């Protein structure tokens, strides 16, 4: 273990240390031609829980030793990424809303904290780069020099593209990456960062998130820190593989090559790809680790969160397995959501998710041996029977998927598009169930396709919900209410009676936000009520699975706290609350279902036969 005394020696020789790191980094780069713009580091997991997992393979650049250097001025260098962090991981001394977090870091620059004026709130890639997937409480490398690390959520500067009222955060208890932090209502911790003067070790520079829209001064969209993506980001190799030109990783073009698997089956499936001459000519496929699977995420997009124009096929907006075990509960494994980019742990044996194989770039695929030709015997005069034509198989047309499954539109109207995923040859149609939603293109299609729609303005003072039927699925549109116009009070005719005390005008109530989207596990949130002083209001739930926990009534400005129970069904559900005469809408995702087939194949003799297949669902309600 590095002692404080040793760190002091390192500080006095900082130039020599970083010169050494630069030499070692150059050594890594010298053999990394065609390896991409950045080289992904290892996850930190060193224990193997199953052959072929992250702990066994340890793909990526090994971390430098020491990983961190205490600079002796209340800052710490990350020698892997080149970033500089405040040594105190709770410098503000408590929680902040997202905007307060940005303002706090801006105030550090005004004051020149620790002699620097370029502090920032880290983006989601920078914040996640601290994580050691082999550790928890906190998920940081052993012997780190930080103080006051809170086992809770830390803000990033990256906005959640699907719901821009939320922002991404990393949990420093076990390292979940999520985006259900409401910018205005959630209170999280703040850990400022700045760019260092030295390069990253082994080219392990943090890359930009993909977010280019600015939502506040100093946020990810305005600063866009990190290595810019190459153009093109991906190259279709023409052999059913795709190279990521940012990282040098090679992925299967088909993102759903294996359908649903439990974790060990996923690793076994990828191992089977390496048998013989190898799938697509390669024998070094692996299940991606957590960092590799996250590396393809574009945090400026959702459903799927991949860069525009990507060449992949059949990307499912659901969870994909990584090869990295959840250190806090080793019966669980990390998974990445390909709807938005969330990172959660899940039990390995009970749930089935998608599999997306990956490999490291190499110059030449394993050559496929040319089979030795067998001499053709001289045919006899036996007449050749006319073969019976093999009928063209009818495609299975039951697995239609749409993404996203809902959208929230402003009162002024707007539009959007919905992606349809279906097997080749499977036809589908799209129709609107309400007059104010119009399908502008894609009213029918075959295989994968897109439906574009427009939403007319809502002139009513209450929000509204409409649906479209797309490929047998229901797409929901929630539209905000128009801002009510106050009716002027008519001037009364003067009378000799005394003028009464004016009653406040209580016709203008506003609630913020007007809707919320929860995962199937449920959760809680807060709604703000804005009105004139003295104006009373009430709040009530219209659905049994939504409970108001505080703020069922109030006067003037106030808040309503509510909770949503877990959704254990396979159907998306929508509920409402009546708050101050306004309608608040709650949308909750359905339970994700995975299925396992036992056995997965059967070999019959030429005489035919029959057999049975057992189907195991990940949940009894599936």
From TrEMBL:
Signal sequence, start to end: 1-35
Residue ranges constituting the Lcl C-terminal domain according to the UniProt record: 74-194, 240-359
Domain BACON: 427-480, 510-581
Pro residues: compositionally biased ranges: 366-394, 491-503
Pfam families: BACON, BACON_2, Lcl_C
Keywords on record: Signal
Superkingdom: Bacteria
Region annotation Disordered: where it falls in the sequence: 362-395, 483-504, 603-622
Official protein name in the record: Secreted protein containing DUF1566
Species of origin: Candidatus Magnetobacterium bavaricum
């Amino acid at each position: 273990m590095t002692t404080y005394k040793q760190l002091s020696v390192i500080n006095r020789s900082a130039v020599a240390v970083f010169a050494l790191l630069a030499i070692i980094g150059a050594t890594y780069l010298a053999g990394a031609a065609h390896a991409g713009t950045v080289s992904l580091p290892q996850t930190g997991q060193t224990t193997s829980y199953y052959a072929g997992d992250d702990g066994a393979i340890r793909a990526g650049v090994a971390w430098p030793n020491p990983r961190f250097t205490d600079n002796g001025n209340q800052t710490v260098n990350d020698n892997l990424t080149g970033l500089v962090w405040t040594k105190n991981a709770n410098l503000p001394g408590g929680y902040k809303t997202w905007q307060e977090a940005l303002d706090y870091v801006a105030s550090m620059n005004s004051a020149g904290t620790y002699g620097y004026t370029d502090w920032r709130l880290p983006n989601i890639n920078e914040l996640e780069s601290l994580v050691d997937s082999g550790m928890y409480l906190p998920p940081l490398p052993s012997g780190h020099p930080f103080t006051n690390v809170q086992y809770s959520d830390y803000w990033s500067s990256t906005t959640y593209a699907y719901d821009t009222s939320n922002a991404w955060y990393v949990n420093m208890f076990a390292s979940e990456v999520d985006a259900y932090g409401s910018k205005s209502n959630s209170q999280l911790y703040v850990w400022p960062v700045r760019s260092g003067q030295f390069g990253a070790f082994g080219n392990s520079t943090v890359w930009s998130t993909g977010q280019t829209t600015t939502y506040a001064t100093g946020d990810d969209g305005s600063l866009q820190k990190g290595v810019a993506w190459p153009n093109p980001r991906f190259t279709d190799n023409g052999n059913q593989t795709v190279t990521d030109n940012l990282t040098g990783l090679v992925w299967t073009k088909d993102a759903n090559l294996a359908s649903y698997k439990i974790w060990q089956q996923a690793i076994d499936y990828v191992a089977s790809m390496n048998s013989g001459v190898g799938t697509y000519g390669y024998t070094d496929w692996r299940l991606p680790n957590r960092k590799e699977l996250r590396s393809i995420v574009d945090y400026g997009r959702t459903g799927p969160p991949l860069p525009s124009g990507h060449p992949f096929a059949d990307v499912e907006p659901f969870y994909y397995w990584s090869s990295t075990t959840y250190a806090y509960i080793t019966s669980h494994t990390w998974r990445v959501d390909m709807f938005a980019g969330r990172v959660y742990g899940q039990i390995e044996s009970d749930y089935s998710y998608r599999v997306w194989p990956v490999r490291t770039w190499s110059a030449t695929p394993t050559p496929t041996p040319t089979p030795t030709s067998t001499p053709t015997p001289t045919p006899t005069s036996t007449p050749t029977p006319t073969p019976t034509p093999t009928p063209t198989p009818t495609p299975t047309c039951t697995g239609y998927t749409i993404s996203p499954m809902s959208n929230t539109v402003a009162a002024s109207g707007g539009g959007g598009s919905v992606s349809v995923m279906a097997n080749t040859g499977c036809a589908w149609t799209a129709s609107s169930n309400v007059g104010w939603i119009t399908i502008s293109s894609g009213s029918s299609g075959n295989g994968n396709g897109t439906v574009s729609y427009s939403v007319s303005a809502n002139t009513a003072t209450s929000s509204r919900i409409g649906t479209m039927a797309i490929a047998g699925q229901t797409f929901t549109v929630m539209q905000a209410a128009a801002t009510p116009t106050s009716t002027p009070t008519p001037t009364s005719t003067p009378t000799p009676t005394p003028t009464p005390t004016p009653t406040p005008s209580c016709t203008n109530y506003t609630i913020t936000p007007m809707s919320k989207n929860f995962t199937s596990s449920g959760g809680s949130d807060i709604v703000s009520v804005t009105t004139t002083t003295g104006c009373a209001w009430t709040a009530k739930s219209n659905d049994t699975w939504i409970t108001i926990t505080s703020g069922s009534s109030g006067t003037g400005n106030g808040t309503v706290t509510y909770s949503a129970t877990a959704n254990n069904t396979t159907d998306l559900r929508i509920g409402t609350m009546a708050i101050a005469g306004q309608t608040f809408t709650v949308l909750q995702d359905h339970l994700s279902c995975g299925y396992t087939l036992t056995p997965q194949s059967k070999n019959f003799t030429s005489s035919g036969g029959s057999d049975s297949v057992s189907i195991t669902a990940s949940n009894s309600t599936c």
